[in-house]
Amino acid sequence: MNMKNAVAAKKEQGFTLIELVMVIVILGILAAFALPRFADLGGDARLASLEGARGSVKSASAIAHSANLANGNNPVNLEGTQITLVNGYPQADGPTVTAATATNGIAEAAQLDANDFGLSLAGTTLTISNGACSFDYTEAAANAAPVITAINVPATGC
Fold first, then answer.
1. 11, 26, 75, 85 - which has most CB atoms within 10 Å?
2. CA distance 140 to 68
């Protein structure tokens, strides 16, 4: 066997066991540094879904108010659902919050479901939460828009 054939035979053998072990060790070290960065994305996901719910509440409130201004109706019809208004904006209520009432409020207008978010009503304020994070929707006062607070994020996160 000449030198050319010996080199060709060596190239066809593949990786040695030591080379494979070194690649596995390097991948293990990279995974050890990368894993903590991706381990807890649940809090970020809960915060993002709550931001989406807040945007939905703002939009639904504006759409219901616009429909009321255009037609003068109370309740207004949003996608086949009658939404009860207070001072021209959706009330802070909905069948997913208090099943005993027959009215639909901002929770129904924004299509928020009690299976996805915590919905609790205290007077004229509806608190929408996801994990430890939350925001409030307070019914509109006379000649004013409803108050939709910023998302409350505790130091421990969502």
1. 85
2. 14
Q: Is residue 153 part of a domain?
A: no
Same-domain status, 62 and 28: no
Q: What are the pLDDT digits (tens) for 114-137?
A: 888 988 888 899 999 998 899 999
Ramachandran angles phi, psi of 133, nearest 5°: -90, 150
Query: Which residues does 79 contact at the CB level (< 8 Å), separation at least 6?
Result: none
Per the structure, the complete domain to which residue 11 belongs is given by: 3-38
- 66 and 105 belong to one structural domain: yes
d(CA 113, CA 120): 12
Give every CB contact of residue 8 below 8 A, 6+ residues apart in sequence: none
pLDDT digits (tens, 9 = 90+) for 18-46: 888 999 999 988 888 877 776 667 788 88
Is 49 found in the same domain as 29? Answer: no
Residue identified by tokens 């054939």 is: 5
Domain count, the chain: 2
d(CA 146, CA 125): 10
Full-model pTM: 0.72
